[in-house]
Amino acid sequence: MLRETASQTAGPYVHIGLALAAAGNPVRDEEIWNEMAKPNTEGEPIEVVGTVIDGNGDLVRDAFVEAWQADANGHYQADYDLSKPFNSFGRTATTFDHGSEWSLTTIKPGAVKHPSGQLMAPHINLTLFARGVNIHLQTRLYFDDEAEANAQCPVLTRIESPARRQTLIAKREEVDGKVRYRLDIRLQGEGETVFFDF
C-alpha cells in the first residue's frame, strides 16, 4: 500500500520563482507583484504593510503573501492585465531588508456581497506561504476605521471571540501624508492570527 506523499513546504523556491526581487534576482518585464493599483485608479489609494511572526515571537523573513481584493465598487477583477489601473490580485514577500515587512500598494476595497445577500465589510484576502507551513494559510485583513461594517460582517462576526477578531483588524496610520494600514500576522502563540478553512 502506498502512503500519501507529504505536503511540500514553501522553502526558498517560492521566492526564486514568484518573488524575484525579494530573492535578489532580475525581475521580468511583466511581473505580478505588490502594486495592485496605479495612481489613476478609482478609489482611495492606500498602502498595506505588515510582518509575519512565528510562535517564538521572531520575524519570518522569507514569507510569501498573495492578496485578492475587490475594487472600490466591491467587484473583483477576474482578468489580470498589467496595463489596467487596478488588478484584484497581487503578491508580496517579507525579506531580510527593511524590517522584514511585506507591503502592497492598492486602493481601499468596497464592500462585497456575501452569498447570504449581506454585505461583507471591506477586506483583503491574504494567503500565506512560509517555511515550515505545509499547507498555505488563508486569512483576511479588515480595516479599523470600518467599525460599523465590521460589526455587521457575516464572516468576521462568525468568529465568536471579539479578541480573536482583532487579529484581523489593520490599524490605520498616516505616513508622509499617505494612508497606510498595518497588520502583523502571527502564526502561533499569543495573539495568533485567525486563519480560515476556505
UniProtKB/TrEMBL annotation:
GO MF annotation list: ferric iron binding; protocatechuate 3,4-dioxygenase activity
InterPro entries hit by this protein: Intradiol_dOase_C, Intradiol_dOase_core, Intradiol_RC_Dioxygenase, Protocat_dOase_a
UniProt KW Ligase keyword: no
The keyword Oxidoreductase appears for this protein: yes
TM region positions: none
Occurrences of domain Intradiol ring-cleavage dioxygenases (ranges): 29-189
Keywords: Dioxygenase, Oxidoreductase
The family this protein is said to belong to: Belongs to the intradiol ring-cleavage dioxygenase family.
PANTHER family listed in its UniProt record: DIOXYGENASE, PUTATIVE (AFU_ORTHOLOGUE AFUA_2G02910)-RELATED, PROTOCATECHUATE 3,4-DIOXYGENASE ALPHA CHAIN
Name listed for the protein in its UniProt record: Protocatechuate 3,4-dioxygenase subunit alpha
